[in-house]
Amino acid sequence: MVSLLLVVGLAVAVFVGFNIGGSSTGVAFGPAVGSGLVSKLAAALLMSVFALLGAATAGRGVIDTLGGAIVPSSEFTLLVSVIILLFVGLALLVSNTFGVPASTSMTAVGAIAGLGVATGTLQEPEMARIVGWWLVSPVLAFWICAVVGRYLYPYLDANFRIDRSSGPVLERDGLSVGLADGTSREEFVGTVAVVVVACYMAFSAGASNAANAVGPLVGSPEANLSTDLGILVACGAIGLGAFTIARRTLDTVGNDLTDLPILAALIVEVVSASLIAFLSWIDVPASLAVSATMSIVGLGWGRATRTTTIGDAVRGDAPEVSVDALAAETAPAGGGGGETDDAGEVPGLGEEDDDLLAEDLFDPGTTGRVIFFWILTPSLSFAASWALFQFVPI
Q: What local confidence, expressed as pLDDT, does residue 168 receive?
């Protein structure tokens, strides 16, 4: 006999997964949608499929972490599990209402940590390990992409730049499908590459975030919910969010943070997805939103600082990072224009022309809003959880 409380718990888990889908889809497919490579509908479908694949493989260990490693599973009564998931869902709903990709893992861990502190059962070594990786992963994302942007991006752009033509990439002629008029072979390869890497990000999001929706329920002895069933519930809800409220976060990541060309989208997706996939394999719940956005900012910052050498910076000649360094793509080698000279060579550090770059590198207001909600949502989740379990007998 299924208890009413378990039904409520599953409903709250769906609510949480729904908000996770809204947040994570924007992070995973924002660059691809912003670059005009896939539609929002296609992004939602791919997100649903690959999130399920990630949750069913690397995500199992993360579910175990949230279900019993931070706080012993004996603390997760059915009522406690429902309350924790409700805190997570409400905090994420606040972020999605403002169109910001929230840190679902931080929010979930914050709620569980609040329970642990209130009951004196917090596993401090495990919590320290998780927080340590939270501090390291965005720094790694920023500096990896900053190094790529400063030292490698112009050369990659000059030799492997992929221009995006207007209209569809493929067209149907009867039963055959071929490249559309105006679509080059390089554009088709680049389109496939960006979509494949976006699916890799969706895999990473499922591996890390499915646990946020069902981890406490799977860990609860009273719920008696298997990991497999929990994964299906979580990923079904993530898919629902991907098809609905994800449209706002797709706009935020794809259009507002920076104007990403195809090559930049590939770099951002590979770096952020690889970091989250690695952390999921070692059972650490981590934020794809944080890693992806820091990758965007790091790549653009590194790209903009090419106008200044390290020696100039030491002497106080800091670069002006109010330029659209990513959107100002380099022309292909030998093609003329862009940042290359007549021989198709990339200017060295400190030799690039500031006047070439026109718009803002990234919108500081949007970036600040994203960072604010990264801090706000887990803080609200922790504070509310701690206060309830500390002062209310449950």
A: 65
Domain count along the chain: 1
The 10s digit of each residue's pLDDT in 150-201 is 889 888 887 776 666 666 666 777 767 777 777 777 777 777 887 898 899 8
Q: How far apart are CA 250 and CA 22, in angstroms?
A: 9
pTM above 0.85, yes or no: no
Alpha carbon distance 13, 223 (integer Å): 12
Q: What is the 3-state secondary structure (H, E, C) of 222-289?
A: CCCCCHHHHHHHHHHHHHHHHHCCHHHHHHHHHHHCCCCCHHHHHHHHHHHHHHHHHHHHCCCCCCHH
Name the nearest CA neighbour of 295 among 317, 324, 264.
264
Q: How far is CA 310 from CA 153, 244, 305, 313, 351, in A?
A: 18, 46, 9, 5, 13
- Tokens at 6, concatenated: 């378990």
Residue type, 364: P
Q: Supply the range of the domain harboring residue 342.
A: 4-391
Q: Which of 11-20, 132-141, 190-199, 368-377 has the lowest mean pLDDT?
A: 368-377
Query: How far apart are the C-alpha atoms of 193 and 3, rounded to whole Å?
Result: 47
Question: CA nearest 21: which of 260, 225, 235, 271?
Answer: 235
Rounded average pLDDT over 266-293:
88
> H/E element holding 338?
none
Q: Look up residue 147 and give its amino acid.
A: V
CA-closest candidate to residue 27, choices 114, 111, 141: 141
The DSSP annotation for 53-103 comes to HHHHTTHHHHHHIIIIISS-GGG--HHHHHHHHHHHHHHHHHHHHTT----
**For residues 161 and 324, what is the distance between their CA atoms, to the nearest angstrom?**
17
Handedness of CA 180, 183, 189, 192 (dihedral sign): negative
Burial (CB < 10 A; 0-12, 13-18, 19+), residue 347, is middle
- Other Cβ atoms within 10 Å of 281 Cβ, number: 14
Place of tokens 């997706």: 269
Mean pLDDT for 79-96 is 80
How does DSSP classify residue 392?
S
pLDDT given for residue 1 in this prediction: 52
- Distance from first CA to last CA of the chain, Å, rounded? 23
**Chain segment 95-130, per-residue pLDDT in tens:** 667 666 567 788 889 999 999 999 999 999 999 999
